[in-house]
Design brief:
Helices cover 10% and strands 43% of the residues. The protein is built from one helix and five strands, in the order βαββββ. The strands form two sheets. A three-stranded antiparallel β-sheet has the order 1-2-3, with no helix packed on it. A two-stranded antiparallel ribbon has the order 4-5. The longest helix is centred in the N-terminal third of the chain and has 7 residues. The relative contact order is 0.23.
Length: 70
Amino acid sequence: MQERLGARLPTQEESTVLRISASLPVLSLTRVATDTTGRVVEAALILLPGDRSDALFTTRLTNNDGTTTE
């Protein structure tokens, strides 16, 4: 899985949708997950207002025996 997190100013459309000022930064998260063959199985673009956002990412990995770990 690849994730990219960045901060930038919103586009005019983004500021309208989020109901924020065009001068307020946004957090942009792009996530792309692939299977073992390289095929994309998940893609997401998440855009959050920069002044009132908090994010927690937890990844649970599956061992060969099927149990999960953090």
